[in-house]
Queue: 4 jobs
Job 1
Amino acid sequence: MRAILAGGGTGGHVIPALAIAQELQKLYGTEVLFIGTARGLENKLVRAAGFPLRLVEVGALNRVSLAIRLKTYFGLPMAIGQARRILAEFNADVVIGVGGYASGPAMMAAILKGIPTLAFEPNVVPGFANRVVARWVSAAAVHFEETGKFFRHAEITGVPVRQAFFQSAVRSPGQPTLLVFGGSQGAHAINHAMIQCLPEILKQVPGIRIIHQTGERDYNDAEAAYQQAGASAEVHKFITDMPAFFARADLLLCRSGASTVAEIAAAGKPAVFVPFPRAADDHQRVNAQALESAGAAVVLEETKLDEVWLVETVSSLLGDPKRLARMSEAARKLAHPNAAHDIAEMAARLAGIET
């Protein structure tokens, strides 16, 4: 079988795509090709994983100026043409779109050529590229049941995450521990709020231990604030082994991108989500609300990241172990340990291979 994975831009697109590609190779000996753009994270991650990568030229359409949008529209036929040539040269049996800039042109090219297509959609509301092709794709692999209504044929597979997240042990009673992070670059609003609220948090939650991934920009300020307050804290610019830090935490304070949401479900960790308000299509808020509705998380809008709301939310949760346990159980019910396997099987069936 020969499969193309198209899309990228961010780690939220590329990392699950790599997991799917590796599962396709393991299960079916699939020859895999990635299609991306020159500015996406796929240029680093895909090449590092040893997969070939071809590039198309396509601009942005969502949350950009009218001038950029018009330029992208006029350039789309060329991008689709580039993708068609790549598909023809590679002789693909199936094309999997993972969202992001390159996904749209590649999926449209596949649809025009009659090649089976599979859309992977980790958010509650599909991203722009998947919304454009939703009515024509052969099938879709989704994380949330409500996402299925956007596609003709959808299966709930979940989002591939590292197996280590499923092995995060349930914390035994002890020093209450809060893990704060905002993606690899940190989240300035969350960092600033934690620094401002730190004295009151220490007062309301005696003995609290805080583990804080700040990113590069806010590291020095946060480190100084924790030292000045005499807090029991670990401050990191970046955390590589995130599953190990999940295992040490009673509660997470973080953004709500699709990959983070999937990792939290896999680890069965209670979370306070602060959705990034400028995320495309406001998908982080919708993701966070889905877990909140399931009883697995609390949503705190960025506009309410002040001392009263943040301190009250964190202190009330850490002071209620039974509620944390219920949230943990609710999160685990949303986990999908076989996501990569199930998505690979879907792709193989579309390509005409018995699974």
Job 2
Amino acid sequence: MAAGVFVDKRIFFLAAASFATGTEAYVYAGHLETLAHDLGQPVSTAGQLATAFALTYAIMAPLVAGLAGRFGRRPVMVSGLVLIGALNLMAAIAPSFGALIAIRFACGLAAGLVGPIATLAAAELAPPDQPGRAMAVVLSGITLAFVLGIPIGSVVGDWAGWRGTFVYAGVLAFGCAALIRAVFPALPGGAPRRLGAFAEALRPAIAGPLLLTMAGFAATFSAVAYVGPLVTAIAGLTGSGIGAMQALIGVGSIAGIVLGGRMADQPGRRGFLAGSFLVSAAALSSYSLLLGTGLPRFMILAGLSLAIIAGAAALFSRTPVIQTRLVAAASAEARPVVLALNGSMVLFGQGLGAAVGGMAIDVAGLPAVGFTAALAALVAVPLALGLPAMAVAAPAQ
């Protein structure tokens, strides 16, 4: 039974849903400068497309998951993916920046029907002693989005423009919707969620991990939301070259998921979480340190690659650990909402990070982004060390 989570193919279909939503979230990032130019906006303003998507998800996903949790898992996820597909096709023909940012708000709402429900379904399908590893498999879909989905989007943008990246994301979402509809079994929903399920998030055992999720993604996306301009400024790469660097985020994410999945089903791990934030701070500061160093180009590329891989590994190693703590701490009724709140913190952190990074660019220019992101990561270290000790418990089946 120890390996059951890995042979249950149903969980890997859930990873496909995460792959589609993870890809569409940042599919345009490699061509952000061109998008900004075409729509008559500065890069710092165009970067707020990430904020629009993320903050909508952050605010609405718990409510959406609370309402949708009573329905079958498959139709909810399929509906969300179809909406995401349609909205991305609309983004491809958006006539103005205002229209595009409105579409990104709507995409954030639709994504609330996919991520939390997929994570919950994985925990429900997992063996009793391996919910963390099951949820890590679902999360691996997001890492695959960074390895393949988003970089392919950057390549598509080389010959089809930034609008083509949205077409690609829309087709991908439709394809994953068809896959889930065709092969994923029907799973019943749960009971309607009461307000008490939301109130559980105020308990320290749940609020602390939620804050860590937000802090980790805010720190990372203060820089990653501007990965295109940063990579161009540091290494002189554009288009497909940026896509190759984006793929390294996925490489680091896979390493982090493997490590975090193993750690997730162990007791405690406050020191592991705190150490991961220190690694994040070191990696993120490299974005600023590498700008204008005058080092040979191969050394700059090596340093940038290492920073990207290490930063992604640190970020994604935390997620299975935090998710498992949340599942163990929450009541059975509250788990869908608590997992949705954690997803909200992921996206809220991304949106907050994009906003903070944009402000750093406006105030001090692109060289300030890495140091700003590193400072945000350091702030989370004492919070991680202050988490209450607890043994991991499996969710009720």
Job 3
Amino acid sequence: MSQNQASSPADAKPATAASRIAALIPGILLCVLIAGVSALLERAELGMFEHPYVEALVMAILLGMALRSFWKPASRWQTGIAFSAKQLLEVAVMLLGASISFAAIAASGIALLVSIAAVVVIALCVSFGLSRLLGLSTRLSILIACGNSICGNSAIAAVAPIIGANNEEIASSISFTAILGVMMVLGLPLLIPLLQLSATQYGILAGLTVYAVPQVLAATVPAGLVSTQIGTLVKLMRVLMLGPVVVGLSLIASRWQNDAKKTNVGFFRLVPWFILGFLALATLRSLEIVPATVVGPVTKITGFLTVVSMAALGLGVDVRVLANVGGRVTAAVTLSLLLLLGISLALVHWFK
């Protein structure tokens, strides 16, 4: 009897670990399935229109929300869904660092770099202020500001785990930002004849205002190769601003976390592990320790993990909650985007 009692704790450990892993599988597989369908829809869209106007990331969160609207996942699904929404997203943010090289900053010219940084900082501050004036929460205001000012859905996905944003905040910011992002792709080329923009000016304008890199391509290809090249370069430089913003937010995130945790806060609580991993990979990439041949596969893995995470977030969203803040979020995103467009147009006239 005593031998059985002595051995039971040792036997319980692997059983507990195995049961935890088993509990994750149903929810993760569901999120992967939604992500796979979203990727296929994006590929079909690419085949029809040559450029994906609605990314798989947006597709995943919309499909997740649609499924959640008529089916609430039972407890057996929840563990894996929660893991996909948080831990997988953190891994994706860390892997994003492998695609960033600090050398790209120095090679692009100080004037353009300073201008892009100034636009991003001004847009961040004013977008956050507008969102707060409209009564949105601090976290939702930060997500909207980062999404509009930096790189849309990718910025929102990267910032969300740092500030502890909940599913509704992430979904609402991504959904409304995505709608306006598509409208920008369709409407921005109309400004070329209206404002008589050169290819260079339009490329800068598209790079500063359009959210995602594929959307920049969609918005600039009709304007010619020069606009496409410049727009892509400016967009990538704008994406690089995500690094400093993410690090800065991680350092001050404790202000809106639980007050009980503010005492004796250590370095690794202020700077999450995945941010340290992000910076480490970016440094290794800049030193060419991470070879260029690795960047492509890592980027694809990062993108798919992000889509899986967005599917999980969509599954955790109650559409009725979004309806309560829909008007204010729409107003905040629209005003922020108009502000960004105005600042960018002023900058474009400087770069004649």
Job 4
Amino acid sequence: MKDLPTPLILLDVKKLKRNISKVSRIAMKNGKKIWPMIKTHKSTYIARLQRDYGSDGFLCGTIDEAEVLTEKGLTKNIMIAYPIADRENLRRVMNIIEEGVRVIIRVDSKECAEFINDHLRKRGLDIDYVVKVDVGMKRLGVPPEKIGKFVSSVEKYKRLNFVGVATHPGQAYASTSPDGVKEVAETTAGILREVKKEIERLGYDPEIVGTGSTPTLRYDLEMDVYTHLFPGNYVYYDRFQVEFMGSATFNDCALTVLATVISIPEHSKGKLAVINVGSKYLGLDRAAHGGGALKNYGYIIEHPKARIFALSEEVGKVDISEDQSVKIGEKVTIIPNHACVVGNATSYLVAHVNGVVKGLVEVDMRNGVRVPRIIFNVQLSK
């Protein structure tokens, strides 16, 4: 690994498989389905591993992801994470349905339901949907106390088949301790229990009662209310998960960034190092939905007392005042604050086991890789 040029993003395949298999094993033991959120890795190689370890469905953050999973024949069950409100993306979803894949959408407004129903009717198709429940993140979703009324109001749209409810307790990322994460997990489960009772009281038998969040995953796996779980970051983990959430240890982190120390400038008197990795690789997150609780941009494995305190686009500044063993030309591995952002920064990951390179893993569902059909033939004039 140390013979590689830098910067590069590395993937420890042994840790990756261990993370996936552990969660899958616990889920099966507890009678739950893991439908992983694809946005974390955007890779058919990793999706295939997840399928082989028992995942018979996936949650997709983009239509691109759903199309690639369908084309590769990796699943017959896809859930779209976010509402669809434009004609072109709905057409793409309908194309997937016509390929024989079950697509489940998430709905949180009657206007969106009506729009989708009208286009499905014209094409002679039906679709399953879950209602997105807002459990406190205040981004998407229907308030819990209004779920029953909402489902009843959407019943008139005959092309939409209600199959359950789902949520994302993203406010867990604002927690700065494992206790805060546990509180979010327990509160969310309590809300979903009441929601389930209400829709059952109205005569519905929900197939899916789901939640998706890596911080709360260890609690969600044991909650009796859930049928489906949609974690994403559990394949990699990252510094947020270790230092704030208590979801993992640094030894579980499968994704790292390889960088070179390119300068220890004279003006710094040996207290500043510059690395050839900046915001385009590490991102600018210092907390997810929180607010900059971390004071640096990654954890340097070889020099844990060093602090990446500032990033330009292609270089980073490292405070080495507490560790002056750092040398120019040294290669260092960095555990990023937020792995989901880093994984989308490249078209491939360098796979390794125990520091020995084993090959490349394509990030073939990466944003911007697929050219939308509507502009495919548009040519820039000379």
